[in-house]
């Protein structure tokens, strides 16, 4: 069942006041009409659509994908998307966007990397120009891989819409609201919420609160799913009913010089048309943009001893063909109770065959007392050791340290975790925001080893013989 959800839209909203309304559910077949009767009844492509609209399908999967993976929507619009001048390379482009990760675009490094939060730009910069790739793997052309971008913008997109032909965007705003107009309707997304804009949808980002900054995971060749819950059972983690999908709304006026900015193979192209692409009067289907409020997440965790793996906090997963191996998992570290007994409670020290990119939306992350700041980022690639910094370790094992249940409050960190090994873009490695002293946070970890047989063990390599 779909539920109607309402949300107060900021009165300073660039797109006018009023309330935004949503449909709810994950993977549903939705239907929405901004004008009653605009959806054709009983078929997708009548000879003439109601109100003289054009029928247009957008496919997010091959036509022949199995039914459970098949994604498509039908849009009923005033003019079809194809009504535009030819595409041309955009001048200026955005040279810091990458969709193929090889030696020409990016470097391999096993080093632990951490970045301070980037400043909002001084010069007028919208979402498209404020987007830059940090790292990634694979290729949008080969339909396998991912890119991690960040953005910092201070200006709403104006007279233009963005269309990403390369992959799906999972956008994590960290500062400043986004008011996103899509062909399916509008979504308002605040820090603490995420939004998914699937491959191919045209959208425009307004900044009703002023400057905005955040993170974007882009996936090539697949789409996000809810994780299986296994022994957890039928409920828990992110619930399908908390995902919100826009309702149809449209702009009817002509708009000479309207520009579509298309990201295609990591490069930007523009095409001019004389109307807004947000001219969809009604639509139906299961290929849709959607948002999710991370405070709705129902966390599960250890209730007796030991630290569970972070996969327990998976919000969404983009699968590969190998069972249980993700192209990209989106995992959060939300406020929760920590109750484990006789346990080192922060994340354990570890090396992982998966690669971990982390960001912080607000607060302090439980493994890093210092240096990992809201809006900042870290990357621990395949088999690169990492874990709590010295201060966190020492505070956790200090005599008299709290062992009672306690609530981790006012924090929200997240991880993009991938089975593919990311290469890092040159500008991210040369960035003034790169924290060159990151390794120092572990250098102070000293030996607490005490064993009066230590010397003997080193001498003959066998502790048993010594006894
Ligand atoms: O490295 C990190 O901070 C992320 C992380 C958190 C955790 O609780 C366990 C493992 C893990 O990789
Ligand atoms: Fe980790």
Automatic annotation (TrEMBL):
Cofactor(s) annotated in UniProt: Fe cation
Pathway(s) served: Amino-acid degradation; L-phenylalanine degradation; acetoacetate and fumarate from L-phenylalanine: step 4/6
InterPro entries: HgmA_C, HgmA_N, Homogentis_dOase, RmlC-like_jellyroll, RmlC_Cupin_sf
EC number: 1.13.11.5
Active-site residues from the entry: 307
Catalytic activity entry: homogentisate + O2 = 4-maleylacetoacetate + H(+)
Class of this enzyme: oxidoreductase
GO biological process: L-phenylalanine catabolic process; L-tyrosine catabolic process
UniProt KW keywords: Dioxygenase, Iron, Metal-binding, Oxidoreductase, Phenylalanine catabolism, Tyrosine catabolism
Record-listed Fe cation binding positions: 350, 356, 386
Name recorded for this polypeptide: Homogentisate 1,2-dioxygenase
Source organism per UniProt: Ananas comosus (Pineapple)
Organismal lineage: Eukaryota, Viridiplantae, Streptophyta, Embryophyta, Tracheophyta
